[in-house]
Fold this protein.
Amino acid sequence: MSLEIKEITKKFGALVANDSINLKVNNSEILAILGENGAGKSTLMNIVYGLLPADSGEILIDGKKVEINSPADALAVGIGMVHQHFMLVPVFTVAENIVLGHEQSQRGVLTLTDAKTKIKRISDEFKFEIDPDALIENLPVGVQQRVEIIRALMYDAKVLILDEPTAVLTPQETDELLNMMRVLKSKGTSIIFITHKLREVKAVADQIAVIRRGKVVGSVDPSTSQEELASLMVGRAVDLEVNKAKISLGGTILKIDDLNIYDGSGRTIVSNLSLDIKAGEILAIAGVQGNGQSEIARSIMNLEAHVTGSIMVDGTEILGNTVHESIKSGIAFIPESRELDGLIGSFSIAENLILNSHDIEPFAKLGQLSKGAIVDNATKRVKEFDIRTQSIEDSASSLSGGNKQKVVLARELSRDVRIVVASQPTRGLDVGSIEFVHERLLAERASGRAILLISTELDEVIALADRIAVIYRGEILGIVEPSVTREKLGLMMAGVK
Ligand SMILES: Nc1ncnc2c1ncn2[C@@H]1O[C@H](COP(=O)(O)OP(=O)(O)OP(=O)(O)O)[C@@H](O)[C@H]1O
Ligand SMILES: [Mg+2]
């Protein structure tokens, strides 16, 4: 099946999110869409999937115009979509989630038994290895995503839209997904694939469309070099290499001793962990997601409930403080999940930019919020971090995925702190923004802060870190130099000493 997007235009107020977009994906073909944060990719896909109405333009399937006014319409004509943020209910099983999706599409009743049979058939056909009775919350992210793909395939999707499917996957899960895409394609499915990772585009795409500020600015083939793709995307040359200066280390700022973290049912998540980070040092914790690294970051902010041991900042114990006190003790925190811990979606961008500082000068004076200072701050940060928005008064939830991340980064990296705890700081960012964030983190390092970097991106870890602690099942398996090879690091992350 082929899908053609013709002259689609979509405005939000004065902002033209999609400007007369023309694109076509042919039968059994993978079309990759590249574009900077806020370029209009998700908006366009939401229109194709019937979640948003276009202002003008049309969609053609196999050359014939179709009317798509809801996801049910999209599914009916063979279009399936996996969203940038998963839409599964964690406490339900795989089969229950899929039946739930079916109800929403109003296509008659699907019994649980029917669903299970169909899930097994699809899972076998595409080698997904999915158990229909597994609880979603017990599945790794990569597997949850396969469930989303199955959900789309349940309705016989012939065109599958994947909006940044690899942003939350481990390198291994990513490779598995790319393989699945090849299998789907070989069986006749067409795929629209959105990603910020140029390597992935080059690995699977048949053609590449680049969108910038709502317009298609180029259609290129996968032999195009990463440098060319990057500059086409952001409209300027991007340095894909990180240039790290040598600097001398200062005294120890963060000292973690014998840290133990347990979950609510008493299970050990992190055991007997000790680490220290000096002024001017980036210590990276590398590991496959789910090995305790998120909990370590959260425990430094006192966001974890069951923790023993010691966490000192400049020689003062901070474990057991309130979150508010943690912030005041000089810690910048870039959380892994900006949606959950980083932003308040219904608050304006300006308000989100002062979330942790609303009670101190210059934002608060004599117990009153100072509107002028808040506006000045927001205007400055939006410019400095290139946050793409029409107005600082817009809600944070209206921002594109990458721009939400930039709001969190702008707020946290603009405070005067001693330590930066950065969990997946470049997740979902375009290459230009990644370059910028890396430069900012290195500037923090140069100004003598201690930086704890938690990242599943091996390239990022190797490029930025002064030392790399590899975590496996809640324990530090070893600390290595950044001159380590990707292969050795990968093996250690898999638990090989
Ligand atoms: N509901 C909305 N109201 C106002 N503006 C919106 C709304 N939805 C999207 N936008 C704006 O439209 C533009 C395009 O956003 P979109 O989410 O399509 O970007 P994207 O290319 O998917 O970016 P990313 O790579 O960060 O996910 C952004 O400037 C965004 O702020
Ligand atoms: Mg998007």
